[in-house]
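BUG: 3D viewer hangs when loading the predicted structure for this chain

Environment: internal workstation, default settings.
Expected: structure renders.
Actual: progress bar stalls at 90%.

Input used:
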Amino acid sequence: MPAGGQAFWLHTEDGTRLRAMTWPRDAGSVRGTVFMFGGRTEFAEKYFEVAGELLERGFAVATVDWRGQGLSDRALADPRKGHVVDYAEFDQDFATFMRDVAPTMPRPWIGLAHSMGGNVLMRAMHDHPDMFAAVALSAPMLGLRLGSPFVSGMLGLVAAAGNRSGFAGRYVPGGSSAANDVVPFEQNILTHDRARYALHQLQIAAEPKIGLGSATYGWLAASFRSIRKVMQTDYLTAIKTPVLIVVAGADRLIDRDALVAAAANVEQGELLLIEGSNHEVLIETDEVRIKFWAAFDKFIDRHLRPNPR
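Structure tokens produced before the viewer hung:
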């Protein structure tokens, strides 16, 4: 954990307890605050390396575990089920985090999100157009790559039908409680970096409560609904925040065409393709991460005041 971090609890209006973390900085030496939002299954510890790199760049940092993952409250009796009723619940988590934490953090505010967190942050930029000075999204979940368009469409129908039929809290077909700590590196589709993958396996082994298994019918149905909502052309054109959308060239989870379309329709959208990267760009090899940070630095420099250091 980078030095200077603080961990604490937040409580949403529906009574859900969220775990948040911040790394404040002295006002005289800070460029602003980067708010980090992880993807499905992820937790604050996974991004300690990223937090340290942002601190080195002169930023304060803040992050939160979404409900249903990390050390935040789980909705179901089986804590390994990745579940949500609707993304409005994630909207509530975001609102609570920004209401209770953001006022204590220096401006300007920058968003940095991965995968599912990118979907939630797109919703936030639409609803709060003046909140962030700029936002960078790593492989945002704006389209799921689940085979052919026909297969993806069928899975969407299956998820919706299962959700309506009382299966909302059940694992999707083939799902289980197994978290990444039991998936061998050779079988993973998230990163090419063996050391970083092993580190995250050790984190879950050290604290099993942060581990998360497969998604439920409810999560999958809610995700399809949110993707359809966010990807409407008029929804995207209403987003005025400068947005950098990073495409992982070897991603087997996110639909590349959806990210291209999103970047094209957001007024200040920019697209970065990193060839050879698996889904988790920020947890990838040094070669991939160097490309990401170079693009991030240029993007942020264009939209923020110069680094006072």
